[in-house]
Amino acid sequence: MLGKAGRALHAAAGTVSVRQVAAAAHATVRTLERKFKQAAGHSVKDVAGLLRFEQVGHHLWRYPAANLANLAQQLVYADQSHLGREFKRYSGGITPAAFARKAAQWQRAVSTNFVAFLLA
């Protein structure tokens, strides 16, 4: 049951409801939540949130100038402020915009200071 739930969460990158995960795992929401919390130490909703947070972080790392409202819609957040609250929750207080600025700074620093050594 937990394997099916995990696969459903992973396949949807956290963008499914707990009810949908329970249906994929052939369990009731209550049973799934209880067993998931015992096994993982986190709720299904928390794991889904972490998966979406990871998607946002990866996207902003690659595309720091991304439109946050569009990203929120793409990753099934209610709105941009919901994305911001969840990102801050899982990042330890950093906003998505601040993360994107840091990513852009790091990318500029790496692209201008990168040295390659070739072995002949």
Describe the 3D structure:
The protein is mostly helical. Helix content is 71%, strand content 0%. It has seven helices and no strands. It has helices at residues 2-11, 18-24, 29-40, 44-62, 68-74, 80-91, 96-113. α1 (2-11) crosses α2, α2 packs across α3 (29-40) and α4 (44-62) crosses α7 (96-113). The termini are far apart. The mean pLDDT is 89.
Short description:
The chain is mainly alpha-helical and 120 residues long. It has helices spanning 2-11, 18-24, 29-40, 44-62, 68-74, 80-91, 96-113. The chain has a single domain (2-109), classed as Homeodomain-like (Arc Repressor Mutant, subunit A).
- Going by CATH, the architecture would be Orthogonal Bundle
Overall average pLDDT:
89
Provide the low-confidence segments as ranges: none
Order of helices and strands: HHHHHHH
What's the CATH C level? Mainly Alpha
